[in-house]
Amino acid sequence: MKAIIMAGGQGSRLRPLTCSRPKPMMPVMNKPIMEHIVNLLKKHGFDDIGVTLQYLPGDIKDYFGNGMEYGVSMRYFVEEVPLGTAGSVKNAGDFLDQTFMVISGDALTDFDLSSAVKFHKEKGSMVTLVLTRVESPLEYGVVITERDGRIKQFLEKPSWGEVFSDTVNTGIYILEPEVLEYFEQGQKFDFSKDLFPRLLADGKPMYGVVLDGYWCDIGNLQQYLQAHQDVLSGKAEVVIPGREIAPQVWVGEGVTINSTAAIKGPVLIGDGSDIGPGVKIEPFSVLGEGCRIEAQSSIKKSVLLNGVYLGTSSSIRGAVMGSGVSVYSNASAYEGSVVGDHSTIKDHSIIKPGVKIWPDKFVETGAAVCSNVIWGTNSPKSIFGLEGIAGLANIEITPEFASRVGAVYGSILGPGERVVLSSDSYPVCEMIKKAFSTGIQSMGVEVMDAGSIVTPVHRYAVRNLKCEAGVHVKISSFRNDKVNMVFTNSQGGNIKKGQERKIENKLARGDYRHADVEKIIPVEPVPGVVEAYLENLNKYINFDILDNAGLQVILAYDNRNLDKFISRLALSAGLSVETLVYYDGSRQFSWRSAQEPLGRAVVEKGADAGAVIDPNADNLILVDEKGQIIQEDMLMALLALIVLKERGGPVVVPVTAPKIIDKLASRYNSRVVRTKTAVQDLLEQIIAHDSKQDKKLPQFLLNFDAMAALVKVLEYCAKNNIKLSQLAEEIPAFFVAKKQVPVPWEAKGRVIRQLIEEKPGELELLDGVKVYHPDGWTLVLPDPEEPVCRIYSEGSSMEIAEELTDIYSSKINKIAGE
């Protein structure tokens, strides 16, 4: 038997989901609607199928092919211009040489089509319409029949005063070929508006058969969600893919579900999806293939298409997420909202009920979206942040992205330039490094591969190898699921803002050309980088003094990344090292959480000191022999004190540094140089002043190399025969308070402008707004990566410091609220 599937619909009421796919390809239970129709036709003996197409015809052809995979034969008939429902069917030409069925490719049904065919033949009908009963027929074509089923009247979308029947046209017809002779080939003609009224007027045998079963015309987003719920609840006899692992919980192949996840059926989880710890998936939710749901996220009565990413503690309620959508941590989407394919919803954003976001859009961190987002692109304002390019590993920072960035950077540097590439030992970082390498190599740049090292060793390698630039890929110091790509200049410092913008602009434009084949240079592995780095430390640290002191230290660090460095440093320094293994639930090193247990361990074991080193040796926390924690501002002051004592000033610090460092500098007849808080600004100034010190102790080693800083602090204490606590006691007491205040992106400029206009005291505008008061100062600094302003205050007492912070927090809230 033959059938025609009408599959030319654009599905305008299903936008934004149908912006890039024809309506029949909209997935229901992870399969296109039309696939359910093909399976239904096959079940009832329709194995020779024609398909009428108009909107994005290639998508349907590519998916179904010749139909062999579905046990049918399929051929396609494309309308170049709209021909109406009947006109599109006549476009099928000689294919329709026998009784045939016409069925919509974008409605979901489980009707007994065989009984409809039987009815048609028994009545000797020219046209048989399949009808169904609905509670509210206002949006449908009502069909009024005699008792024997003969049609006597059509009412198209009647008012309640015209509703004389609850039987409506489902768009499923059984037709004899001669009905197509009533109009010309290529003529725009409709079944319900043109052909059927004419046949009725001519007295042709036309019947309607009312079938029991499920039928849903998926005409809008509410009906789209409802169709999923109906299948999950058993109202529609549609085969649910996958295996049932718990009552009404179906999963596909290769699905990973953490043991702490809570899933309450009915639920469908598509092939290859990954459900993290503490995730809650509530009834009537459907996840497509390859979805990744991070810890503590929750989904309820929602549909996620293929490849959706939900970050930690995100929440989806009664919404639809298109293919490839990324919803970052603590973001939410509420009832009736729809996010189009490949859009990005950043952290802490809220998509309000009913909001539609078109494909390839970007919602900034902390945004509250109250109206539809149709225009724009899926590009953030900038890709560089506080330290290079940072993003979620294999979500934002993917091999494809890294390769493109590599090509862009290579086009800026030019052919023949030498660049050091390195990564830490995390597999994802090594993968991104290799992808970046292919991109930059394709531009004719000479790549020097320094292997698996850490950030300070990379910075040293760029200088030592006299290369023009470098890129180091590392796991983030703050989140184990994020990656940083750190771009360094010939001095080992971070590249300037201007060069970052050049990379961003060129990446957005895509205007670069790959090098000729003859100019591709093989990657050159660089041996002995670690050995050279350790040898260089001998210039500034007296390891003999340490060896004679025989200090005992307890360290907490990432063994995977740092062991090959720390074990050799400990051996050279004669340190007795005990390692505190401290991991979080993800089995990755949690350096910030290690300080309290480390403090207890140092006291209990009578060690001389302890230290926490972050995975890439960028950050250091010290613990003295009394178990007191030395970090952040106190550590900055302590390291500045060593610089001042060992070589004199000037000493370089960020604008956020406490004034106590100025007092220390004055004590040693020196001065303080303050810079912007950005890493590249601080590094640039430190490197510039180090170069004038004639081989004396570089401040760079103390501020940007946690391993070297630890060993130097221990050497200083051993050389002067003092305890670490005694060194810390040389720093007078100071009182600093910090706070962050949520500020929408669009209000940041207004906050800074009004604070300047107020002139509440002496102002310093080096970075943000710094206001000096009689008993202290406050700095208000807009964050470049998040919708917040950060407040730093120092006072003559902690009470004053906190009071200043609260005063400016209130000011900011008032200005931002306006």
Please provide a written account of the structure.
The longest helix is centred in the last third of the chain and has 20 residues, at 798-817. The chain has 22 helices and 53 strands. With 818 residues, the chain is α/β, with parallel strands linked by helices. The strands form eleven sheets. It has an eight-stranded mixed sheet with strand order 14-15-18-21-24-27-30-33. It has a seven-stranded mixed sheet with strand order 5-4-1-6-11-8-12. A seven-stranded parallel sheet has the order 16-19-22-25-28-31-34, with no helix packed on it. Helix 7 crosses helix 8 (427-441), helix 12 crosses helix 19 and helix 15 runs parallel beside helix 16 (660-667).
State the low-pLDDT regions, or none: 583-587
Overall pLDDT metric = 90
Decide which structural class fits the backbone: alpha/beta
Please work out how many helical segments DSSP would assign.
Answer: 22
The 3D shape can be described as elongated
Please report the total strand number as a whole number.
53
Q: Determine the strand fraction and express it as a percent band.
A: 25-35%
Strand order of the largest sheet: 14-15-18-21-24-27-30-33
N→C terminal distance:
69 Å
Percent of residues in helices: 25-40%
Biggest sheet architecture: 8 strands, mixed
- Provide the gyration radius in Å: 35 Å
